[in-house]
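Reopening this one. Same input as before:
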Amino acid sequence: MTQMIFTDRTVMAELMARMLWEIKAVHFNADKPYKFASGMASPVYIDCRKLISYPRIRSTIMDFAASIIVRNVGFEQFDCVAGGETAGIPFAAFLAERLNLPMIYVRKQPKGHGRNAQIEGDMKDGARVLVIEDLTTAGGSMFTFIDAIRAAGGIVDHGMALFYYGIFPEAVERFANRKVSLQYITTWREVLAVAKEQKLFDDKTLEEVEAFLNAPLAWSGWNGGISELPTN
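Same output, byte for byte:
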């Protein structure tokens, strides 16, 4: 197993937040909110896919992810790591290497027929699978992949998101109801804290972002977006 960096979760969260700002993977814009495919209006945007282009940063983040998994779940609790098409695939490869585990990936839609129509790679029946995504908002896309793995005979009790929005109570309920424990490294709260510390934006922008994090659906509704999360 590759050597991992063991450190406090709050330190890892802050360091990853700093890395995201350093590579310009996160953006704040309260005057012209971002409009997501879900219909939500948001003053914040993140692109975790950029991480794959920065070897030193991605290596450290995968050390963090592996550390969180072995500390919170255990050393021998998984038989393989699964990434979701497409953003989760490279991170599944990186994490599988860290944990010395096989890797599979899961398609968004079945290709062909049969139990493993959405699964690429070799997943044994009853395999204990760790599903990793680059980020999760409220868990919707992650459960597309979890459901496919479960339908194919795999066991999924844990998910890993490098970045977790951490602002929707619905997400907490969804993971609890579907019996999946979510592990993650950092959230928007840590990203905002770094932005405040480094004075990256004016006070009004920071206040608007904080207002969004405190009441995201209300903020979205006030700014022309949806005021309820999609059910999927």
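So the earlier flakiness isn't reproducible anymore. For the record, The CA atoms of residues 142 and 203 lie 35 Å apart.
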